[in-house]
Amino acid sequence: MTRRWLNERKHEYYYLKAKHMDYRSRAAFKLLQIDERFRIFRPGDSVVDLGASPGGWSQVARELIGERGRIIGVDLVPIRPLDGVDTIVGDITSAETIKELLSRFGGKADVVISDMAPNIGGNYSTDHARSVHLCGFVLDVCDRLLKENGKMVMKVFMGDLFKQLKDHTELRFDKVSVYTPEATRKESSEVYVIGEGFHAREAPLRPLPPDEPVTKFRKRGELK
Ligand SMILES: C[S@@+](CC[C@H](N)C(=O)[O-])C[C@H]1O[C@@H](n2cnc3c(N)ncnc32)[C@H](O)[C@@H]1O
User: Fold this and answer.
1) CA-to-CA distance for 68 and 71, rounded, in angstroms?
2) Which residue among 58, 75, 139, 190 is best mutated to probe the pocket of ligand 1, counting the most ligand atoms within 8 A of its Cβ?
3) What is the pLDDT of residues 109-136, one digit of tens each?
4) Regarding beta strands 70-75 and 146-157, do their DSSP bridges make them parallel or antiparallel, or are they unpaired?
């Protein structure tokens, strides 16, 4: 049995399991495994899900927070309606989307989760840099929206900027862990950063980005 064969079987296993359990993505199992390890969600929590489409993570969060909880999902592409999940179509790198999220949420969240991934262009360092860039916006959303002691989960592609991102995360959270759930493909460079015990910083908030998204690409692989 080659490693590739094993990986393909694992991929197929989670694909079939997701279909069977009515989850919209295999990624749902990553969040379930993260929650099993870190106990992210509690009944009644309010949750922001960034990069939520097609909705697998929102489904898992919804199950774990129960009827009393609330969740809002944001994505560049529309999220098919999901019971008990509010959605926003928008780019989290634009002020317009951030303002809409703040006004629609109308309070502070217990948990911010992000499975956002940039368009993969094929160049490892560019993809990594774009992923870290998106994570910067996840931390911004935490600064504006997360409760004291709140929790955060975000995906990032590993690379040489990772240490910097982790340092920025540690400025905000008492405990920061890096975790690769079993459901992640072995060849993937993605890891999940888990922040527990959020505390608002003394430093002023980073100014909102322009209304126009900053992650727009003129063509595949080219930053605007
Ligand atoms: C791996 S998918 C998320 C899968 C989701 N967690 C699930 O379980 O169904 C990554 C998502 O990030 C979204 N995304 C990427 N950049 C974004 C941005 N700047 N603003 C909002 N969403 C973004 C993509 O559109 C894509 O749907």
Assistant:
1) 10
2) 75
3) 999 999 999 988 778 899 999 999 999 9
4) unpaired
pLDDT in tens, 149-171: 999 999 999 999 999 999 999 99
Domains of the chain: 3-198 (3.40.50.150)
20: left (phi over 0), alpha (psi -120 to 50) or beta: alpha
What residue type is assigned to position 113 of the chain? I
Ligand 1 in reach of 120 Cβ (< 6 A): no
* Closest ligand 1 atom number to CA of residue 116: 12
- Residues 211, 46, 198: CA angle, nearest 5 degrees: 80
Percent of the chain with pLDDT over 70: 93
Distance 179 CA to ligand 1 centre (A): 19
Closest Cα to atom 26 of ligand 1: 51
Give 141-151 pLDDT, tens digit per residue. 999 999 999 99
What's the rounded Cα separation, in Å, for the pair 119 and 140? 21
